[in-house]
Amino acid sequence: MIKDTYKDAIRTLNTLQTNASYLEQVKRERGDPRAQLEAMRGFLERSGLQVEDLDRLNIIHVTGTKGKGSACAFTERILRGYGLRTGFYSSPHLVQVRERIRINGQPLSKELFSKYFWLVYRRLRGTKDESQANMPAYFRFLTIMAFHVFLQEKVDLAVVEVGIGGAFDCTNIIRAPVVCGVSSLGIDHTSILGDTVEKIAWQKGGIFKPGVPAFTVPQPEQPLEVLRDRARECGCPLYLCPELDAFEAGTRVLELGLAGSHQRSNAALALQLSRTWLQRRGYEAGTDVLQDVLPGAELSAQRSVPLAPTFCPSDAMIQGLRDTEWPGRTQVLPHGPVTWYIDGAHTTSSIQACVRWFRQAALNEDKPQDGSEVRVLLFNATGDRDTAALLKLLLPCHFDYAVFCPNFTEVSVAANSADQQNFNVTLENALTRCVENQKTWTRLMEEKGGPWLPAPLEVGGLLQPDPLRGALLLVPPAERPLNSTSLVFPCISHALQWITQGRDPHLPLPASKVGAHPHPVATSGAVLLQEAAAIRVLVTGSLHLVGGVLKLLDPTLSQ
Phi and psi for 443 in degrees, rounded to 5? Predict the structure, then answer.
C-alpha cells in the first residue's frame, strides 16, 4: 500500500511540471519577479504555514553557480557530527525525488514522503477558488513540502540550497536565516538570471538579510563588488572565506570526502557557515573559538570585503569534511575493467574543474601493462547552455570515443521511472540536441587536426530501425563513416550497453541480446572496447544524465 501511495505521489507531483495555470502565472509574473515571492508566500499560507514559522528552522541558506550543493553537503555533515538533527533541501535529485529532502543525511523514506506529500497537496487543492485557481509548480511545491517536513520532524537546523538565482528564487521567502553562503559564481541560467557574471551576482546577493552574516568564496573583482554592494544595501555583514590552506596549520592536511581541488573552496565555505551557525546558536565550535566572528574580521589588502578570521577546526569539523558524501560529483566507481568517472558539471567553470579532476584521477590509476586503455566521454547538456564551449573544454582529455544520448534511461517513456520523468522535454527535442552536440564534437575534432570526420545525419528518420525492436544505435550509418569517433544513442541504457560491451559486472545484461546497428564505427569500437585492458568513462554535462547513469549502474538506488 505504501509503495503504491508513493508511486501515486510521484505521478501526481509530475503533473505540476506542466500545470497550464502555472504557465499562465509565469507569463504574468515575468514582468514582475517580486510577484513570484508573493505567490510563494500565498502557497505557503494555503498549505498551513506562515513565513514566520520558518524562523524556527535555524536555516543556513546557500546560493552560487557551482559548488553550492557540495558546500551544503559539507556543512550538513559537519553539523550532524555535533549530534544535531539536520534537515537538508537540495536540487535536483539524481535517482529518486525524495533525495531532495533529507533528515540526518538520509533521503526521506517513501512512507514519510507519501505522508507529507499528500498532507500538503490536499491542503493546497482544498484551498483553490476562482481567485486562487492554481497549484504551485514542481519546485515550489517541493520547497513548501520540505518546510513542513523539517518543522514536523523537529530538526535542529535546515541547510537550504537555492534553486536558481537567489533574489526571486522561491526559497527566498526565508526571512531570518542564521547565516548565508555564496559559492563560486559563473555563467548559467542566463535566460533567467542575466548574461553577465555581474547580473548573476546581483541575483545571488538577493538572499542577504539585515544583520545576518554571510560568507563568500573568492570571486572575480567585479562580481565581488556587486555582492559587497548588495550586502551594504540591506545591512548584511559579508565576509570573504580564507583559503582552506589557512586552516591547515603545520603538517595537518584536511582530508575531504569529495575529490577535486575545486572542492577546497566549498569546504572552506562550509567551515565558516558551520562555525558561525554554532556560535550564533550558542554551541561550542572548537578550543579557540572567538566570541564573535564579526569584530575579528580583517580587511584584506586587495579586497573590498573583509576577510573572515581563520580558526582551529574542531575534531567534528575535520571528521565532517572527511566523511562528506555527495553522489554524482567527482565520483569514481571502479567496476572491474570499466572505471566510471561521474561528475554533473554543466557550466564552463565546473567543466574546467571536472577536466582537471578527471585527468588527475585517470593519471593516478595504474596503466594497463599492454597499454590498451580506451577513454570514452558520455555527454549531454540541456537548457540554454553553450554546448560548444563545454565540449571544447573536454578536448584535452583525449577521448577515443564521444557518446551522446538524452537523459532518458530507456527509449520507452513507460520504462522510465516516474522520479526521472521530465514532461517539459520531448524525446524528439532531446534527440535533436544530441545530434547537434555530435556535430559540434565532429567540428571541434576537425579543427583540432584529427582525421576526417563525417557530419552526422539530420534528425529526420533518427529512430531507424525502431530501437524498441532491439537496435542499439540511434543514428543510421553515414555514407563514409571513416574514422568517426562519436555516436548517438536514443537512451542511456543503450549507450551504457555499447560502452561496456558486457564487461561491467554491475550492469545487468539485457534479457535478449540487443542487435547492434550495422554502423562501422560501432562495430570497430566494440572490438576495441571488448579487448581493452581498461575502459575509462567520463560522464558529465548534466546532473540528470548522471542520475540516469547511477540508476542503471546501481539498481539499489531506485529501491
Answer: -65, -45
